[in-house]
Amino acid sequence: MKINLKEVEFKDHPKYPGVRIGFIVTKERHPELSITLLEIEPEIEIPIHHHPREVDTIFVLSGEGLAFIDGKEISLKAEDVLVIPPGVKHGLKNSGKDLLRCFIVHTPALW
After folding, report:
1. Residues 6+ apart with CB under 8 A from 29
2. Which residues of the chain have pLDDT under 50?
């Protein structure tokens, strides 16, 4: 399976205004893995949440952000990777002036 990121179709995130999501691999195709591409507008935040079963891996492609993981604030920039174990509370905010773009991988599949 080959995917060119320029061909990924984005939709508004179902929960978070100012966040767009592109589905690359979903649980219908691969139940153990989902891959999405997120675009987060400046100053927009995905609030603190957790995934009871899924490991959440965030690969920052471009932009700047802040991650909130178990009460700690972590600065993010392009080429940073976060791995968040199941059950750990986390959130993500675009703290820069440009779009924050990230690959998000969930195992097992979330989407």
Report:
1. none
2. none
